[in-house]
Amino acid sequence: MKTRRFIDRVKVKVVAGKGGDGCASFRREKYVPQGGPDGGDGGHGGDVVFCGSKDIDSLVALYFEPLVRAEHGGDGKGQRCFGRNGADAVVLVPCGTEVRDFISGELRADIVADGQREVIAAGGKGGLGNVHFKSATHQAPTERTLGEEGEELELQLELKTIADVGLIGFPSAGKSSLLAALTAARPKVANYPFTTMNPVIGTVVYSNYDQLRVADIPGIIEGASDGAGLGLQFLRHITRAPVLAYVIDMAGSEAREPWDDYTTLRHELQTYDPALLERPAIVVANKMDLPDAVEKLAQFREKFDVEIAEISATEEVGIAELSQRLRALAQRGDVEGQRNVCGGMKAAD
Questions:
Q1: Does 328 fall in a domain?
Q2: Of 299, 307, 342, the residue nearest 325 (C-alpha)
Q3: What's the pTM value of the predicted model, to 2 decimals?
């Protein structure tokens, strides 16, 4: 099966349209030998507009066509004919796209909603025709103005996926299986590391038609903050998620202890962005159907004071309860609630 290329960061150049030139013209009609000025204005140059679209999940189109040009405005003509305005260049981008100046890093737009339109580069104003320069003492003006140049910018676009819950875990912790059990998403699932190569979004639909978007990103490993593995480069995709779910292999089936995995994950998040540790969070104790999981969970509870959901993603045990707890966390907005569920090491007795 052919897979689509996923691009979440791209450099582009945008060029807005130039305004059309004003016209210097005079009436030349029969029986009007000395007609006054009638030069029309130039049309405005087209804008470059970025528009959010829920139907797009990658910046791949701009990766292959990184130059965006809007249309120039038409020149003014005689008989007070105005030039045609240049057509805007409208580019569809995924919801969650940040647009920054490539040199300064200044944020120019944050496109988060479907249909949200942002003028990124403004077209130039059209020039004035000579009709604007006529006065009582200046009956035959030849002056006119030229159209202004449109804005020309180099930009960095970065996609930060919009989700309500971000799944964080080591490779093979069962994040993809969990996403498939929770939602209608069908991520690639296998028993080897780094099955998930790109962020995958699934939606939980509740009986009252509430929806919860869940993001699965490539697994994080120790040393990710130093460039190891795949996960850290995709952590930007959970920076918008108000809730984090640490998916832990509680059976230790990959020859690692679950408490070590949890500590490592929090360390890597702290290195990337300390604010992530302040988000409401839950530990998803996965693979509870395997030997040693119950015993290791008891030890885990002794070490950490955190909210824990016990599940088996492959057997789909505990999934319904987890989906309700995730919805409750996503709806919780008070600071005290965030402090209670984020948790850390228990204080010594």
A1: yes
A2: 307
A3: 0.74
Q: 147 is written with which tokens?
A: 């159209």
**Is residue 1 a part of any domain in this protein?**
no
Residue type, 85: N
CA 14 to chain centre: 19
Same domain? 72 vs 197: no
Residues 223 and 128 in one domain: no
If asked whether residues 47 and 75 sit together in one domain, one would say yes
Q: State the Cα–Cα distance between residues 119 and 80, nearest whole angstrom.
A: 30
Q: What is the residue range of 200's domain?
A: 165-343
CA pair distance 215, 96, nearest whole angstrom: 13
Q: How far apart are CA 28 and CA 26, in angstroms?
A: 6
Do 101 and 221 reside in the same domain of the chain?
Answer: no
Find all residues with CB under 8 Å of 230, minimum gap 6, and list them.
Answer: 194, 197, 218, 219
Distance of CA 9 to CAs 37, 75, 153, 157, 213, Å? 52, 38, 17, 6, 22
Asked whether the beta carbons of 307 and 282 are under 8 A apart, the reply is: yes
Alpha helices in the chain (DSSP H): 60-64, 175-182, 258-272, 293-303, 319-331, 335-342
Average pLDDT per block of 10 residues along the chain, 349 residues long: 67 98 89 82 98 92 96 96 97 96 96 96 98 92 96 96 90 89 61 52 87 83 52 75 95 92 93 91 96 96 96 94 94 45 39
- What is the spatial distance between Cα 282 and Cα 24, in angstroms, rounded to a whole number? 71
- The answer to whether residues 107 and 100 touch, using CB atoms and an 8 Å cutoff, is yes
Q: Is the dihedral of CA 309, 315, 321, 323 positive or negative?
A: positive
